[in-house]
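Hallway conversation turned thread

IA: we were arguing at lunch whether anyone had actually written out Carboxypeptidase regulatory-like domain-containing protein end to end. Turns out nobody had. So, for the record, here is the sequence (347 residues) and right after it the structure tokens. Reply here if something looks off.
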Amino acid sequence: MSSVIMKGYLKFILCILGISVFLTGWCKISSSDEGMDTRDNISVQDSDEDEDEDEAEMAGKNCLTSGCHGAGGEERFYLGGTIYTNSKGRRARAGATIQVVNPDGVKLLLKSDKYGNFYTEKKVKPPFDIIVSYHGREVKKPFSAPHGSCNAGGCHVVGAAGRVFISSIDLDLTGTVSEAANALEISYNSDIKAIFDKKCISCHMPGGPQGDVPLTTYAEVTDPSLVAPGSSNGLLLNKVNPQTGSMWQYLGNLSEYKKIKRWIVKFHAQETSSTGQFIANAHISLLENNKVKYSTITDGEGKFVLKKVKAGEYILKVSKEGYKTSIQPYQMKQVNVSPLEITMTKQ
């Protein structure tokens, strides 16, 4: 009986050992298989990286050549190029939107990839109007592109027109506002003084027959007892009136009388011409889609600054009470933004 038990016990031990050996071998095989799979994945990834590097090297190249994506190529592109962050093409601009419109009315919206490249296999005919936009900024090509290869020699390459780019650096728009030239404007210094010097001061001067009412200086001529700026009811105009004035005989010139009257009534008896004078507190606005995007007012010297204006097309509006409102289109550039010199005309 004990012999039978002993034999059964030995069989049990051998069975356990066999199972252990089997499991150990299976684990080794499984581990070896996983290593092969891992190596295969790395190999594929390395291959993808090589392809990405090839694509990166092609950024900025003319991809519409006959041996590549031109006529006869495997995948023909009808328009293609690369967008950068500056004109020197040192960094790609990913995620820019490229709007393309041709004379047939075909409109395409393309996106630049992580290398800044964009292209289309859709058959479209040049010339193309192209607008590039990025995060609220917009750059419009100033003239139609004659063909679809933006990176062709002589076009948007370094040393020629510069790379196609859209910057994320927003610049300030500065300028001045002044009064516009007015050929009909009348002032004491430029127009009226000569008349009084010729016709009046021989009597109306200190020591003269009418020295009690001197007319030799601006302050004397515009004394409140003689002139009411903006009104025709002052004593001076009454005295030189062609019909009723006692001093008309000394003036004796209708055009000069009209000039004196216009000077007092319309130009408020100003001493000097306002032409070229800077205008303070003028309102400056840039509108986009009829909404004000940027606004400010001019300082005491007529200067203004609009901070960090995004590139794009706007409507520039300048207004101030007493002047005609100026409204005109304005294209904000990405580089070389020149100060504006705005003139306004009195109403």
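OS: looked through it. Residues 171-181+275-344 form a domain with the Immunoglobulin-like fold (CATH 2.60.40.1120).
IA: good, adding that to the notes. The chain has four domains: 1-58, 61-168, 171-181+275-344, 188-265.
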